[in-house]
Amino acid sequence: MKPALPPSDKALVPFVSVENMLRFIHHTGIETMLRDLADYIEADFLRWESFDKTPRVASHSDVGVIELMPTSDGESYGFKYVNGHPGNTRTGLQTVTAFGLLADVHSGYPVLLTEMTVLTAMRTAAMSALAARHLAPRGARCMAMIGNGAQSEFQSIAMQAICGIEEVRLYDTDPAATAKAARNLSHSGLHMTSCTSAEEAMEGAQIITTCTADKQYATILTDNMIGSGVHINAIGGDCPGKTELAPAILQRSDIFVEYPEQTRIEGEIQQLAPDHPVTELWQVFAGTAKGRTSEAQITLFDSVGFAIEDFSALRYMRDHITGTPFFTLLDLLADPDDPRDLYGMLLRAAPSD
Ligand code: NAD
Fold it and tell me: How many structural domains is the chain composed of?
């Protein structure tokens, strides 16, 4: 076979593998990167009107969901492929895996392909902490972390780095998950308490983060567990028929969402009337809607994960990998010398014998 012609630079797409993502995070520092991701997300939420927005495209099965999350700001186009399979951990697979792509709108050519399993954990944590920075009671220092799976350490470190949380109270129905999280966070500087019930985890917590995975209308928090003045981050309820909070909690809370059209399908508020009032977070960031207005108020970030957060994460990676060794160039796009001679390219690559 003739040697293939080397592709030109314009056809080579920077690719961040899992290994390179892990090296990049260590090189950058996890706290620095979480803070930067929160800044990128906030900056993109502040230009909310300039994005194409649509609820993500979901393909459901009995055991989980596979989703595509696209958006564009007119200059760049991004999408993420992500799955959510709560039973996967029983067979050694992860609940959530992802990869994503950023492209130049003017040529349509991809400019970045990257793993996004780790990057999703980072952006989800940055988003939670960004919401809490605007909504949590002033001086909050203690968080209950309910659900101690793959996302939980990222959530805890983001709350420490961005909101100044000093203590995390861990609870999971599987004590091995709690032990894993406590071990992983033992050098974080956070004061860790492992709890044997959700009620115990919530003692003294001003921020309550639920991040469990169960494909049902679960009741991780019941109404009587929630006192006044707390901020709740509900991360794990993110699919039709998959929620974490008792509806009575929602009735007592001021609810903040990413993109209402998607959250009404996927979030905790799928349990409420379709016209139940919610506030869009971007408006809180912009100062055009109120966030926390009183000490007694219960604020709830009904997080489902929205495409603009992934776009921000992709944009951040594109901006920060240039000039680093944390990517390789992928021969992803066919690049014939004459752009109309794609078939000629195939002919020239034919085996000679
Ligand atoms: P994971 O499977 O690694 O961890 C989930 C943990 O929840 C497990 O340790 C499990 O034992 C625990 N759990 C299940 N039921 C529980 C209960 N009743 N009480 C306490 N703990 C319980 O999953 P993960 O990757 O950490 O993701 C957690 C959830 O977050 C998933 O539902 C996922 O879909 C969701 N998620 C949301 C976003 C977002 O942007 N909102 C992003 C990523 C993941």
Answer: 2
Same domain, 158 and 85: no
Which sequence positions are flagged as catalytic?
238
The residue ranges of DSSP E strands in 222-340, in sequence order, are 231-234, 243-245, 253-257, 279-280, 298-302, 328-331
- Cα–Cα distance measured from residue 61 to residue 285, given in angstroms and rounded to the nearest whole number: 36
Q: What is the mean pLDDT of residues 221-238?
A: 95
Owning domain of residue 278: 132-305
pLDDT of 271-302, one tens digit each? 999 999 999 999 999 999 999 999 999 999 99
CATH number at residue 208: 3.40.50.720
User: Is any atom of ligand 1 closer than 6 Å to the C-beta of 238?
Assistant: yes
Is residue 267 in contact with ligand 1, taking CB distance under 6 Å?
no
pLDDT per residue as tens digits for the range 44-82: 999 999 999 999 999 999 999 999 999 999 999 999 999
Ligand 1 center to 213 CA (angstroms): 3
For residue 209, the one-letter residue type is T
Q: How far apart are CA 317 and CA 102, in angstroms?
A: 10
pLDDT tens digit string along 305-314?
Answer: 999 999 999 9
Is residue 126 in a domain? no
Does residue 77 sit in the same domain as residue 149? no
The pTM score is: 0.96
| pLDDT (average), residues 193-217 | 95
Say if CB 146 and CB 110 are below 8 A apart: no
CA of 218 to the centre of ligand 1 (A): 12
Residue 256 lies in a domain: yes
pLDDT of residue 215: 81
220 lines ligand 1 (CB under 6 A): yes
Per-residue confidence (pLDDT) for residue 5, from 0 to 100: 46
Instruction: Say whether both 69 and 216 belong to one domain.
Output: no
Q: Could you tell me if 143 and 58 lie in one domain?
A: no
CATH number for the domain harbouring residue 30: 3.30.1780.10
Distance (Å, whole) CA 267 – CA 271: 8
Amino acid identity, residue 216?
A: Q
- Establish if 4 belongs to a structural domain: no
- Average pLDDT score over residue span 167-193: 98
Q: Determine whether the shortest distance from the Cβ of 97 to ligand 1 is under 6 A.
A: no
